[in-house]
Amino acid sequence: MEFYESPPFSMTKKIEETPLAPAMKISDWIIVFILTCIPVLNLIMLIIWSLDKRGNPNRRSFAQAVLIFVAVMLVLSSFYFGQMTGWLFQIMALM
């Protein structure tokens, strides 16, 4: 009867890791949040950051997530606004 032997485990063997993105400093995040508070500039900067391949991938992912969130909220709010407008016209028709 043969038993399967696993290869010997080496504690000194280094695992090849993909290079990590440099961490953004607190001051970088503060600048990002300040720029996202300015009404028209926020959309421009979020689009630039989400399409930038050479920039920080953490900021790129953040910008993509915010743009997706804004798009979903825009769709939901337009549905809600349309519903409220329809109710308003129904009430006006009853008068």
Could you please describe the fold and organization of this structure?
The structure is a single chain. This protein is mainly α and 95 residues long. The N and C termini lie far apart (92 Å). The chain contains three helices and no strands. It has helices at 26-37, 39-51, 57-94. The longest helix has 38 residues, at 57-94.
In terms of topology, how is this protein built?
Blueprint (H helix, E strand, L loop, with lengths): L25 H12 L1 H13 L5 H38 L1
Helix pairs in contact: 2-3
Query: What is the overall pLDDT average?
Result: 88
Order of helices and strands: HHH
Indicate the proportion of strand residues: under 5%
Radius of gyration: 26 Å
Question: How many strands appear in the DSSP assignment?
Answer: 0
